[in-house]
Amino acid sequence: MTRGGTKLTPQKLAALAKVAAAARNRAYCPYSNHPVGVALVTASGKVYAGANVEVAHYKGVCAEASAISAMVTAGERDIRAVVVVGPSMQYLCTPCGDCRQRLREFCAPDTQIYSMWKDGRHGATHAMADLLPQSFGPENLQEVGALPQTKSAAGAKTAGGKQKKERVKNKATKTIKKNKKNVSPGSLRRRNARPS
Ligand SMILES: [Zn+2]
User: Fold this and answer.
1) Regarding beta strands 47-51 and 37-42, do their DSSP bridges make them parallel or antiparallel, or are they unpaired?
2) What is the per-residue pLDDT for 145?
3) Disulfide engineering: 116 pairs with which of 21, 73, 85, 196, CB 3.0-4.6 Å?
4) For residues 106 and 121, what is the distance between their CA atoms, to the nearest angstrom?
5) Which one, of 52, 15, 11, lies nearest residue 33 by Cα?
């Protein structure tokens, strides 16, 4: 799959800002009162919009996640540009930490993320790799394998290992009990009562 960012022309950016702003205006965010809209452009040239959706248990979905869900549901996985429109003229809306990781899954390091002011004007542009440097991604999971067996793990398989494990467990339990004893209210009282 060819990956890479697409630099948007000012006209295209303005058009996408309108799509993102329209999504933002439909956001459901009665708890944060912080509506956000996103427009993603994919390799096919299609645009997927998303708004944040909150629920009473506070585990809401960000606008980026909404747009990514729409994109993946439609069968696409290659983001070429991202436009985010927040609700403020003072604090520019960049993707949150969670969404940086989500975007990173489907973006190239040079994919541009455009943050727009409330009125749709351009605020800042960041490359994906700048928003999430030294990131963890699908590549990290490509090389998988068994870890070398540790001594205790290997020993635990034998009868002797089992007994040893039991002894360690008993010792740990005794240590916990002993530590508890040391900090019990009674022992503190006794310690305080001791003449200095
Ligand atoms: Zn987010």
Assistant:
1) antiparallel
2) 74
3) 85
4) 25
5) 52
pLDDT at position 144 is 77
Selected catalytic residue, list 54, 64, 143, 166: 64
Residue among 63, 44, 41, 49 at smallest CA distance from 107: 41
pLDDT at 46: 98
Q: What is the three-class DSSP state of 71? A: helix
**Residue whose token pair is 């429109």:** 85
Reading the block at residue 19, the tokens are 């799509």
**Of 121, 128, 83, 75, nearest to 103 (Cα)?**
128
Q: 191: pLDDT confidence band, cut at 50, 70 and 90?
A: very low
* DSSP designation for 7: P
CA–CA distance, 9 with 58 (Å, rounded to integer): 37
The structure tokens listed for 29 are 């965010």
Q: Which one, of 85, 78, 48, lies nearest residue 65 by Cα?
A: 48
pTM score: 0.74
Annotated catalytic residue 64: yes
50 pLDDT more than 50: yes
Name the residue with higher pLDDT: 164 or 139.
Answer: 139
Is-contact 101 129, C-beta < 8 A?
no
Tell me, in angstroms, the distance from the centre of ligand 1 to residue 39's CA.
14
How far apart are the CA of 44 and the centre of ligand 1, in A?
A: 24
Region of 110 (left: φ > 0; alpha: ψ -120 to 50; beta: rest) is alpha
Token pair of 45, please? Answer: 């040239």
